Structures are given as structure tokens and as C-alpha cells.
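Thanks for the sequence, V.! I ran Ubiquitin carboxyl-terminal hydrolase 47 right away. Repeating your input here for the record:
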Amino acid sequence: MVTGENTQLIPTEDVCVADGEKVLCIIRDMVDTQCHGVKHSLNLPATVLVSEFIQEVAKQFGYMAHTINLQYERQVEGGQIEVMTLDHSEDRALGEICVHGIRRHTFVINEMEGQLPQKVEAVSSGNNENQASGTSSCFNYSTEESTKPSISSTSFNSTEYSYSSALIKSETGYVGLVNQAMTCYLNSLLQTLYMTPEFRNALYRWEFDGTEEEAVKSIPSQLQKLFLQLQTSKKRAAETTDLTRSFGWDSGEVWQQHDVQELCRVMFDALEVKWKNTDQANLINQLYQGKMKDYVKCLECGHESARVDAYLDIPLVIRPFGSNQSYSSVDEALRAFVQPEILDDSNQYFCEQCNKKCNAHKGFKFVSFPYLLTLQLKRFDFDYSTMHRIKLNDRMSFPELLNLKHLIDDETETHKSDSAKPETKMMSPTTNGLVSEEDVDEGIEVETCACGTSYNGSSDDFSGVSSNEALVNVKNMRESDVSGPYTYELFSIMIHSGSAAGGHYYAYIKCLSDGQWYSFNDQHVTKITYEDIRKTYGGSGGSRGYYSSTYASSTNAYMLMYRKIDKERNACLMKEDEFPEHLKKELQKINDREEAERKQKELEKSTCKIKVFCYHPTQRRRLDHKLEIHKDKTLAEATEMARSVFDLEDVVPLDCVRLVKYDEYQDTLERSFESEEETLIGKLLGGVKQSYCFDLLLETKRQDQIFHEYKPGGVTVKVYLADLKKDIIHDPVNVRAYHVQTVQEFKCLVSQVLNIPETNMRCVLERFHSDLRLLSIPNKTLKTEGFFKSNKVYVECSGDQHDNSVPFQESRLYKLLDRHQNTFRVHITLPSIAEIEEWKRLCSHSTIYSKTGLDSALESGINSSDNSVGNSNEVCNDGNDSLEVDEGISDKSDRSDSDIDFRFRTLSLQRGLSQSDPSVYHSCQQAERNSSLSPQGSDERTSSPLAQSMSSQSTSTSAEFSLSANLNSNCDGNFDSPEEFHLLQEGGQDVSEHICGNDSDQHEKTLPPSPLQSREMDFKEPIQCSENWEAETSDLIPQGKDSEGEEVLEEIKRYFLAEPIETNFLGQRSMTVYVDKRILLSAFKKELEPHIGLTSENFKVYRVYANSQEFESTRLSDTLSFLEDGKINIKLGRALRNGEYRVKIYQLLVNEAEPSKFLLEAIFAKGMTVLESKKMIFPDLRLQHGLDIPLDRCRLRKKTWKNPGAIYLNNQTYEEDIQIFPNWDVFLEVLDEPEKMLSNSQLAVYIRRWMPSKYQLDPFQEVILQLQTVDELKEKISEKSGIPVEDIEIAKGRGTFPYEVSLLEIHTDLDWNPPVTSLSMWPLYICDDGCLVYYRDRKEELLEISEEMKKDIQQKENARMNKLNQRVNYSPRKEKALKIYTEDTPVTSSKVSPDLD
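Predicted structure:
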């Protein structure tokens, strides 16, 4: 004998590799969760019988052979895996079932249906542990039995388990509960009630006498059914959905986590309501209710005033209010609970006996304890310094045996009770099996596994328990027998793992019949040890961080349940043969339902789930269905089922359809199944497919066609027939071809499939997008032409000689295919008719608007007395070309900024209208800058801010009906009425029309079209489906130069086809458009005008993303290629023009708790100066926020997140001096004095004084620096503070605005007075506006503060810092009240009931 590498003994005389064929078996155990999926190898002779092979595998892995299911993963054609289950009685050799030519064969151990695999008993404690470690073993088959030790069964607490094991009952014999979403708290309480014999037995004895419909809403009935499943089901876990449905909960309730103690109270109340007038009416009170006395006792005369109250649980404080020390045990917390409070001084008690105020004791005394005692450990508290809920993870131990006799209010033992401590019985192992006083500690401290305590007093029943544990438990029980009537044993620990923000509940519960502890963690039930229980005491393992109280997560006991040790009342759990008759009937219903579910699962295991596709011959589109078919059905039967699923019985005969293998991902035909109509689907698919991973295509044909055979390795071609006469392309037809075929052979094949002539056929291959290749060489193979696995080919057979003679890129066929490639469908959501009418009504408020068609704030307010200052009229004067007011507020000869500012006040709109539009301001500026109209025919554009745009899309959050200014006009000085003010200075041409490329020959006094008059069509009539091909909006492309050298531009028409508008019952409108994606946005908007009913200047185009986010498209020169999802929303409002951007303006309040406040949204344009933008937004600031700011005391500055940045000077221009971009944010800052920042060379710095003698920071101040040196900064600080320059020390603020720092750290942690001369040098490195510099007087001494003051400052700092961080990071979970809905009014659990003890 020699020893192998795996230490297994192998006879050397039998080892001969060349003796015969061997089979290398790789075996994976998918049952044992401790070595889940670990591979083992066996090298066996091919002559070994399958039955012997199963026995050997079972022995190698330590299983009983008849309890496991061994499966062979057989490799079949195409790389597919076919799973073969090995029969225990199989007499074939292993080599016969294994595929030849494969070196490694994979076998998998799985569970058998409805049976948990069983381990064999360990016969040796020996030397071989390779099964658990995954090492390979070489087995030589012989008649001798090898002494292979088996793996003994072990209990574990792992959450990993295989899928099949989830359907089998736990090896503990107990059934878990499925967590619906966040119902772990419910599961913990239900398992505790289920393991309580008195509660379960009483529930079983109750009989429901209502109907089936009423039973659905009956909480006791559903609870009874759930307990029956927990006791009799063979599943691993039971569902609680029926019970929660009886609570009146919907699907949203299960996503709310609640407190388990709160649930206990609410559910007990609901049960009491449902059990009215039954034998169980007082069950809750009999089991869980105790009494306590709330008293006040005079310390002078001894008179006591008391009230007796009932309770269902005792809340025990973990940490007293205001204290840093917590109670270490339940005993200490109980003593504190009954410790009286002394009422003295101003809080004295008025004693009626003494007839005066006296010192008194106020507290609680227990009158009686319930049979089932519930203790709640109050681990959740509220921290008033941080204003957060917190969880107290402090250690609190609890005993398994608890004697509460000393807590009972017994007048004969008053003095004795005042000084006595709770008597607790602890279990602690000792080295010699005896319990000494020195070894006793609070709580359950047994280090090794114990199986519990038996109450017959005999140590012979402690099988499997160490002698130390047995002796300890026996000693405890004997002592408890003489300890009095108030001795309790612990049987349930409900545990919370997590923080105050959320967590997970589970329960440790002891079986009261055998004393074994189990962990009930949702669907997992496992055995536990006393060491696991000891870990639930709590206690932090390390130092706490800043947020530890709020965010620290820990696992500890939250609620304890004890049962009184009373041999007369202690009940045993009811067994199945003891069930009442009504319960047996209900159990039979449950068993029948489970049997039906089992049969359904068996059926599903034999059901193939296939995805079937079909190109419907009449609907002209691809359809798909999920087909479920039994594996024993034939291919012919499956074909008939597929034809029925697609409703083709009356469309296509059965002999004109067939199923072929299809690849949905690549959209290719894989192969056909010739002469396999009677083949079983299970065999055809290579086994049962249960995940819809196998695709089939139901192929159809005409009666005169024949089905071609599809061999593996071919290519799929989608053939599109192009019709040049009708200018359309027909739907595709799938054609199967091969790479070795020539182009001529392919044309012949297409001719047969499409039934078209082959003589004049032209074929065009689309290899990639915009890559069209004419297949003109007949002898070339398809592979040479570049055919892939899936292809697109366009064919045309009209025989047009002219089109055939021109180059392909200039032919009609190419243009048709090019259009087809670039045309896509766009779904457009339109404003409703009511919204458009409301828009028109708002526009009609201005008489000017009805003629101009421009949604300008200027036009909307120029003739409105309500929107002008002093009810004045506005005219244009020939002399100075300025707006005037009758009341003489503005001087004609003065064209100051205040005059312009006043004009803006005269242009205010009605409520909800906006003036923050550049066209308003520039229209007024244009009126001031020009004294007469330009010469007729001038090409000069009048919209100064609207230069050629480099902009991109911009996000708009403005209201849909927000009117913005849109006026491009100037005055000629001779207007007869205000209506003439809208005339355009330069030929009357509208800017948007100029951008769109529409030429205009209008006179200087010609009005642009109104949206109410545009195109002279009635927009109330529905738009019919129309195709605009010849009259499309165009874009221009260069076509060379003429004889004079000028560039020749040719108009390119783009395809646009609109389907009729659809209107739903809510009045919402939508339409579908087929459009060439190369069309310009400006042309696209022009095409939409007749369908919307407004000119393009009055609506905005928003692209919609897959996540429903929308962004405005503003660049009119862009094409529609950006529409990836093909969805567009149309909104009413002034559309952004080229060079315009929407800007969000926030007010900067440096000394406020919230330094950033949103004001409004405005439109800035390229070429606009900062001064112009300020004047433009001032009217809205006054109208919306009441801010009347002097122009010289207002500044705009850069906003980067929440940091104030560079200051924008009045003379700076957007885009040239200041970069402007979409989604832009700026700060508006109101100054206390006129602006001092006049040059880019200056630097604006915030300063803040630190006063160490007061532990105080002064408010923010600002200084403007010219030289940007440290000396200059100190001089400015000296001017502000009065501190001599030589005594000033500075330090740069850290972080982001407002640069928060703790008052306890600022004096020492900052880098004070760095040795640098320039602000740009490190460590200051102050180069941009908005930085903060702290300063202090070096002669000012630091205040010495006491610990109390330091603690007070720290609490304030914590509260302040938490508020700052809460705005960004902290989002507390909103809790929903826990309710269980019953038909009757709930009865409170605090009512007084007779003493049942």
C-alpha cells in the first residue's frame, strides 16, 4: 500500500492507467452550502455501472445515496448542454452514457423533489478532510471497500443556499417566513407568537364561523392558517401575504419598516376587537397583562395616593435622560424603573393629610406580573443637540432565569424590598462542572453549544450537551423551584440590526419543550449557541466618530419575552393528532392546495418556454409571443400552437407555415427542421428551456412558393423591394443565402421568393449606414461583396433605362434609398386646443401683438394702463427718438440710465409675464441710438444681441405661458399711434424668419404675420394627413462657382410626412411625423406651424430622453440627428434664438443662514453687456420680489455650485469677455455702498474677524485690493477694524463657501500669519474673487473656558454643522404610522381588567 497525494490509501497492485479506458468525472455539490459549488474529481473505469457510480459519489460526499439526485451535464451539438438525470437502477456502464471524445465530464449533485438530502453518520474522526476543502481524489475501482470517512452533519448559520433548497423544509424542522419587502419586524413577532404554546393552542381552539369572503378579512382566521402552515408545511418558508391583506394593507405598506413593539401593541388590539364575544375575548389580558401602581407618597405622614394601571410590556431605559452612563443589565434597569422620584423644593406635593406641601416620593410599584412578560429595551432615542433620532448600542445583559418576587408591592416586606436586588439565576461553565460564585456573571455566558434545559430535573435528558452545561442547567432549575411564584425563563429575543434610520429584525427563540435555541431570520431557520445570544447584549467595539450616534449600525436585543415557570400553567404545543375538527378540515384544504402547487411545479419542469416571432403577413410587422409547450409535444403540434397564437388560422393554411430556429439578437435565420415534424420539442431544443433563451420564427409562404432548407452557416438577407413609380419601399422579406453563392444566383433566388422578373433587377447592398453598394458584377460571390451574417439588400426591377444609364449616386434609386435610410419617425406631443386659445387670448391683450405676431413683453404692455407707471402713454419722439411720459418724470434731453430704467417700468406686463428678455432692452436701446429709420432696402439686422449663434441646447424651467419679450423694431419719429411702434427699422424683416432663410421684400412699414393670421388658414380645422415633398423648407449646399466666380448654392428639399393629429379624451394632442433627420431645426419648425396653429417664434421644441427628462433645442442650424429617442414635446412660449441662453439668477446673502436664494430666470444674449443685463432684469426684481436696487449698488458674479466667484464688470460683454453657456447660474449681490470693483486687475476678498476673548466670529465684510499683497490686505483690514497693522494676523478659510470652521479649532488649526508677501503665494494662494480671510488681533488673549462651556459650544457647533450637512447629505426616512384596519373601533390595551394572577 502507498499513500496518494490526497492521503487516501490506494492498492498499488491495482493501479494501472493503461489497463482500460477511464472516465474523468468532475463532480459539483450544489446541496451543501458550506462548500457550495466546490468541484471534486473521480477517475473511474468506463465499465463502472451507473448505479455503482451513484453509490460511490454518495459515499465520497457523505450522503445517503437514495436522497440525492445526480445529474450529468452532457455536451451536445452546437456547444449546448443537455442535463441528464442518472437513474439509481441504471445497469448501463458509465462509458456508455458519457460523450466520447471529451476528456472531462461534469456531474452535479442536487436535491430530490420534496426531500432534503441526508448525511450519513460519521464513522471516523479520522484523517481525511478533502471533501470539504475541494481537493481532488483519485479513485481506483475494485471490489474492496475503501474506508472513506463521511462528512458529519453540522449546523450552520449561513444565509447562502441553493435555489432548490429554498423549496425544502429546513433541517431544523421549522418553517421560515418570507420577507415581502420590509416585513422582517412582522416575521419576528409572528414566529415568537407561534413558538408560544399558550397563544398557539388558544388560537387553534378558536373556530371561524363566517364565509370564505369574510375569512379573507379576518385576522385570527388568517393567523390560524399561517400557524398551520408553519407547523405542517414541507416548504422552507411560508408567505404572509394573506395575513397582511387581512390587516387591510396594500402593496405600499410592506415597504414601510415599523417598530416590532408598536406592531405587538397594534396587533393585540386588533385581535381583541376580532375576538369580542368569544372564548378568546380575554386571551391577551390573561397572557400578557400585568398591573402596576402609579403612586405619590408623603414623606412626613406616610400617606399614599395611588392609581392602578394595566400594562402589556415594560419599557426599560437604556440610558437615563441627560446621563452619559447606561444601565449595564436588565436587573439594573428594573431597579431604576421602580426607583421613586423625590418631589421637593418648588416641586413639593400637597398632602391632604398634612394639609400642606411636603416632600414626597413619586414612582411605580408592580402589583402583579403577567404570565408572559414582555420587556422592551428602549434603544431608540432622540438627540436634542443634533435633532436626530439615534440608536443606543450600549451593552445591556439579560438573564435566562429572572426572579421578580422582590419587585411585587408587598406591604409586609416593604423595608426588605427597598434594599433587595433582583435574584437572577445565571449559567456559567466551570472547569470542574460546579458553579462557583466567582464564576457567575450576569447574562447567559455559556461559551459552547447547549441544547437547552429540561424541566424534569434529570440530568440524563441532556443528550449532546457537555457535562458542565448539564450540571449548570440542573442547578439553576432546582434553585428556581424554590425561588417563588415569580420566576421567569427567557424564550424569545427580538433583535434589531442597524441604525435609527433603518435596519433588520430577526428573532432568537427557544423551543420550550426541549430547550434548543433557534434563529428565525425570515426564511432561514438555524440552530444557535449561547455564544450567539451573548453577542446580542450590544456594546460598541471602538471609539465613536462624529456621526456615530446617528449612523452607527449595530446588532443587539430590542425586545425580550419571558414565560413564568409554573408547572400547572406551562402548556405543551398542540400536535396534529390533537387538532380540533375544524382545524383538521382547514389543514386538508392547505394540503390539497400545496399538492396542486407541487403538481404545477412538476408540470413547469417539463414545460419548454420559447419565444416565438412572426412577420405577420397582413399586419406587416414583426410580432412576438412567449410560448409554453410541454417537452413531449411534437414540432408539428408546436407549429399549430404558434399559428393559433398569432391568429393566423384564417390567414395562412397550416401547410404554409413552419418553425425555424431564429436569433433575435442578430436577426438571423439559423436553421430549418426538415423532416422533423414528429420530433419531440424537448429533444429538438436540447432539453427543457425555462428562461425563454431559445428563439423560433414562424415562417409563412404563399401557396405557390416552396420552403427552402436553411442549413447552418448561411446568411440572412432582408430584401426590400423599391418602387420608383410610387416612390416607396415595401416591407422586407427574409431570404436565406450562402456566402459561396454568386450575385447572379442570389438574384435568381430573390426572383423566386418575391415573384419578380430577374432580367432588369438591380440589387443594392447596405453594408453600413450611408454605405450603399450596387451589386453589378454577376460572377462575384456574396462573401466577396462583403455580406455579413445579417444583411439589407434593396432590389428594383422597373427597367427604367434612363435611371440605369446615369451614375448610381445620381439615380432616382439612390435618392430613394438615401431618403429611406435617413427618414425616421418622430412622436410629437402638441399643446391642446385650450392651451393655444389661452395663448392667443394672452397675446390679444396687446393690440400691437395682434398685428405683429410677436410675444414681446414690450408689445404686451405698451398700450396697457395697468402695466405702465402713472398711467402714462408711450410715444416715440422725432427729435430724440426716446420714450416719453406725459407726467414729465423723464426729461427729454436726458438719456441717462435712470431714463432707460424708467422706460422698463412702463413696460411691465400683467401677472405671470416676464420682462427678462434681451429683445425688450435692445429694442429700447435701438430707439435711443437711432434718430430716424434706415434707408429703404437696408440689409442691416436690428436685433443687436442676436448674432450668429455658437449655442447649444438649453434647459428651460419657465412656465409654458410665460411671455418673454420679442421685439425687433425701431421708431421713425412720426408714428400716428402707439400701434405703429412695432415697425421694424430695417425693412420689416423678422429675425427668426431671417434665420430660417425666408427672404422678404416687405416695405419698412409692412407688418410681419400674426400667429392669428399666419398662412391664412383656420387652425381650428383638423390637419389632414399630408406629404410635403416638393415644397419643403430647404437648406443650402455649395454647388461650385458661376462664370463670375460667385458661390452657387442649391436648395436641398427634405422629406416631411405628417400623420393626422390624435386627441385623447383629456384633450391632449399628439402626432406622428416621418421626417428626414438631416432637416434643419428651423425648417422643421416651419413645417410644424400649420399643425400647431402658431408661427415658429411662438413655440419651443424640447427633446425628450428615455428617463423623461427634456431639454430645449435652440440651435436652428442643427439637424434632427440629435433625436435619438424620436420624442419631442412642443411648448408654447418665446423660443430661444441663436445666441440666447436661459440664466438662473440667485441672490447672494453672505451673512444669512441660507446664503443662496433663487430669484428668477432670465434670457441673456451674446453681445449683451453686463450693464444691459442688469437693467433688463430690474423690472422683474421689483415686480416679483420687491427689490428696488440702485444700479450702482448691484453686481452680478459667477456662481460655482454655492461659491461666489469672479465679479462681472458693467462694461464686460457676454461671450467676448464672459463665457456664457446653457444651464448657467449667476449670483446677484446687493451692496451696502456703491460698487468699488471697477477693473479686472482688482481683487475682491471677504474678511471675517475672529475674537478669541469671546469665542466669536464677526459677520462677513468685503475689501477691494489693487496690489494684491499681504500688506495691502492688512491695511484694508486695519481700516475696517481699527486694529493696528502690525497686530493683525491672517489665515485663509478652508473648504467651500461659507467656509465653516469650529470655534474650538479655529484658533489653533488654521495656518495663521504665513510668511508670504503676496496673496498669490502658497499657502494663501488667493487669486480669485470670493475667497475668505480670517483675521485676529495678536494681542487679544484666548479665553479660558471650562469643560461645561466647551461642551455647550460643542453642542451648538454640532447642531450648526449638522444643519449645514443636512441640507446636502442627510435625508431622514419619512415614517408612516402603523395601522391594522378592522371593521370595529379598536379597544385600547390600557384598560383595567380583573387581576388574573
